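Two proteins, back to back. First:
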Amino acid sequence: MSITKISWAEGGLGGDRKAPHFEGEIRMTGQEPNISLLSWQDLPEEVRSVFRDAGVRTAEHHGLRYQRLGDGFLACSDSRTSRLLAEALFTETHPKAADDPDAFLRRLLEGTVDEVPEEQLRRYGLLSFRHRNVILFTPLKDSGGSLLQAFRDAASTDTGDLLVRLSDGAVALVKANQDDQGEEAAEYAEAAIETMEMEYGIQLAAGIGACRNHWREIGRSCEEARRALETGRLFHRPGPVYEYRKQRLERLLTEIPPRKRQELRGEIFNPSTRKVLGPDTLQMIRAYFDNDLSVSTTSRQLFMHRNTIMYRLEKIRKATGLDLRKFSDAAAFKLWLDLPETAGE
């Protein structure tokens, strides 16, 4: 067992930037993690592009977990230590947190619980645990108030659902589903987001983790929900609800280093193809892919003559060498199309 002391005083990040004061001890086992306190200018461009969205509190890049803390950022090689630090700061900046009745549930979701008393599991109804997953709600901009209270007032929950505020300000809902597919979770998230915007003017995004059948795995579902949010933003997917289980392709592409992604994308999207692959043509291609390569369906959806679509597909073939009427070429183009446009996105 080792103890790492962290001292982060006001102005400790250099310049005129101010950070919240924190001085404490974090207990951990094994090798001590690499911990850094960074300013905005110190962040890698790939991480800055994620944090430009004011609602984003955490990001991961090249084995490091970055967490927004005041005007500064914490970079840590160990995600559990990062969550412990965030929880310590949450407790310090929220004096009543020590008496928070939901502290156990928050720590369980964030993976910082060392001991799990049976009475706590019974209290939250977690002993009989089936088909539950986590929906993580995060504001797209500063909500200026208690997001949790607003959520409790505006969004209805079912019997067995659990609602808690996490250390980074996001609101997590442990949702009970009818089966392991968890289809109702996405429907609930969309309805809750619409209600919050109508009632309070708060714009939210939601990430949904996979369903789990044991309380020990609920923290994993919470982490998946967080990753779903980060991945959806990285690939500019239309939101505001992102499901981890539906992001298989995106998760595969995130394993490619950013600069390599940019290099690969440049093989198709470059000055020589720019005229052919304009915004209107790309919109047509996305609709064509969404309609399973059906020219007729795409034509009806876009109110575009099928001959126009065929003409554009032929121009794409001549410009790129890929015939999108063939599944193999269409699949390859889809991969290139889904790659972020620059190394920083």
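And the second protein:
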Amino acid sequence: MNPIQIESWSLRVIDAVRAGQPNEDFLVELKREWPAPQKAARRIAGHANAVRGEKILWLIGVDEKAKKIHGASGDVDLADWYPKLEKHFDGFAPRLTPLNIKVDDALVVALLFETDQYPFVVKNPSGGHIQYEVPWRENTSIRSARREDLIRLISPLVNQPKIEIRSGIFQIIEVSQSIPSPDKEVSNMDFYLDLDFYIISNPKLTITFPFYRCDLKLYLPTSGLLETFSLEIRSLKPKGRTDRNNTHASGIMASRLSGSTFESLSPTIQWSPDQIILNGSGMLSIKAYKRFSLKSDDLLSKSKLEETDEDVLIRLEMNSFDLESSLIIETAMEKTEAERGCFASWEIKQ
């Protein structure tokens, strides 16, 4: 979900609060003030477990009872609050995308949590024999999960395909030298990604992944989110048939079109311009491409790309109507020595 979508969702909720309408969206939680990290951890975990993979939205600075928008307190620093909250989780906490939203003279903080890594478990702050809890939200209250709740959590995972990443490379090619402008320099960069992975899937099931329900994100930890590559196929043919010899000078097979494409390397996986159909286990290869115009004063600039030694994080989310939760592939790539003609390069180290 991009910032525009988060803001649009948030403003719809805020408009409803102002109109005196009760919040009936189970995916939304409204808070007048920042909750304490320990209390928030249990409530977020319960909320995330109950929605089983759906995204949830918390709005800080919205008073539903008073029907007013007070704005979030400036005394709380999100960079300090969220790490404190994470410490109360056993394992992963839901991934967070924050967004500040200006509403008249108030500043509302929207917190979008991704819950696809459920179940979420929190630590017992009191210690003792019961060390952990799986919280569960029921209506607006939080309680411990019962057996039937745990069955609801686990059952969608039974038929979930498993992923084994085999290899991957991400490279950046400078297409043209920096172009001076009145106040900054602009560099055109081509981003190429080549990722091979093996899917282990139940042969008794047919699972279809439409490309419009797939999303590929590239993260550089020092600079945040770089870009989202669309996996929707538009009039591209299987690369195994037409582009096998279309190799870039850097060694990456990639389409020169802005977008992404899948190449099926297994007879158990059917390919079409719109979707992939799993009829069992097999190997898949995804190749993605995107051109960026990077300005010298951007958060991610040419000089910062050149200087960084940070890993690149690749996150592929594939959604199917045949599964109750998303299929998530996440992997880190280490920076390596760039090949000739390549500006920067990252690879998966086995």
